[in-house]
């Protein structure tokens, strides 16, 4: 049975060891775990970390001017940011990502936030993620390209 817990400050290296495919590096994870305006949740099967999700209360500025403009237009500039969700492949399609969304949205709501946003790669391999977020109430509010030319969708959900 998978259990969900909030990660603590000294777990960054352990998280990265268990989920090496996770985007953030150890320094970024440590920064999140030390910041009161961030949260990291873990999914554990027995004592093994099988998934992780992270978010920020104030995810702006995002680092991309076009994305910041979408967020301002939708009155979401100072709202919560769902930074990432990562789940081990053998644990996918078991509801872990859905529970992570519930947990992070609940945390943001408890902190007084009204909206949460996420950016998702529009690469062919990531289009399932766009559908996943749409199925959880996120709406696409715009697209932008990063410094490498990769296209992303900015998605927003009312809490």
Record keyword descriptors for this entry.
single chain; 159 residues; 5 helices
Describe what this molecule looks like in 3D.
The protein is an alpha+beta fold. The chain has one domain (2-158): Gcn5-related N-acetyltransferase (GNAT) (Aminopeptidase). Helices cover 31% and strands 33% of the residues. The chain has helices at 12-18, 26-34, 65-73, 96-110, 127-135, and strands spanning 2-6, 38-45, 48-56, 80-87, 115-121, 139-145, 151-158. It has a seven-stranded mixed β-sheet, with helices on both faces. The longest helix is centred in the middle third of the chain and has 15 residues, at 96-110.
Query: Main sheet: which strands, in order across?
Result: 1-2-3-4-5-7-6
**Overall SS class:** alpha+beta
CATH architecture: 3-Layer(aba) Sandwich
What is the chains' assembly state? Answer: single chain
- Number of H/I helices: 5
Count of strand segments: 7
Q: Which helices and strands, and how do they pair?
A:
Blueprint: E1 2-6, H1 12-18, H2 26-34, E2 38-45, E3 48-56, H3 65-73, E4 80-87, H4 96-110, E5 115-121, H5 127-135, E6 139-145, E7 151-158
Parallel strand pairs: 4-5
Antiparallel strand pairs: 1-2, 2-3, 3-4, 5-7, 6-7
Quick recap of the structure?
Helix 1 packs across helix 2 (26-34). The chain has helices at 12-18, 26-34, 65-73, 96-110, 127-135, and strands at 2-6, 38-45, 48-56, 80-87, 115-121, 139-145, 151-158. Helix content is 31%, strand content 33%.
